[in-house]
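Our example copied in:
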Amino acid sequence: MATHAAVSATVELARKVIGESKASYVNAILRKVSAKSLEEWLSPLEEIQDPVVKLSILHSHPEWIVSAYYDLLKDFALVEAELVANNVPASPTLVSWPGESTQEELVELGAVATRFSPYGARFEGSPGSLELVRHRKAGVQDEGSQLVADIFMKFAGSAENILDLCAGPGGKAALISHLARAQGKNFFANEISEPRAALVKKVVGSFPVIVGDGRDIASQTQRFDAILADVPCTGLGALRRRPEVRWRRTLQDLRALTELQRELSDAAISVLNVGGIFGYATCSPHFAETSAQVQQILKLHPELEQLEISQHLPEGLLDATRGLNLSLWTGRHETDSMFLAIFRKVR
């Protein structure tokens, strides 16, 4: 298709979808972009020597994110692979809920079993077209999130009372609660947002859902044997799902979020029984939200010991570690870049 025809068709579509005034803006941008070839637009990059700046422009990521990736990966080829992966929209991943459905049933419906999670399956169609999903016998959840829930529950072992401290919108709570029910355990969910708590209630059955600030969980007077804190974070591990986040988040957000993460961790540990398991999870690989927080938790809480995540990693996933922690990467593992650290309260 000729360039002018592509511009005209796109502007006409914009006019129908977003209105005349915004379509005029789209038209102006497209005409300016189409005035040069791709090679002409990219040629100035050849003069840029700083790889962070170059990759930032080439793959449309803020420089602070590119730098954060390099600090962890120490290889610009690996950094670029992650940036490329972030720009490819994720296809739906289904999750079977124990006691309601199985991975095999999802595969029979045309999905493809996930590489690592025993509950997941990738599906190219609309999840809402499946009866299992419509009737809440299965759900939609990234494989990385499934792995966090599954590994946490393996470490939880004989725990009787299990808490998901930051449960909304309910993906991990759904899988953990179904595993808990199948194992005869008690499950509790906590969520500060009432609308998100309502979503959690729809997927955890009869288990209680507390609506409140996780930092005030001690006011419930309940103690727990295993607690997962999937804390609010920058979301840098899910940029392929929410690409706009890369431009909305700033280093100032990072500082505020790390403080909140510490406060939630402290609150969780305060209501954890001796011998209990604490899981700290984020959907971000950023050092300040992951390894630095682990160091701080251990410094502030000598009553904890960190456990090695590899003892419960699926076969083929042993490269998904950073120190003793789980550290998934989108480009390498085809999941969101989830992080999980596991601790035991020894006194």
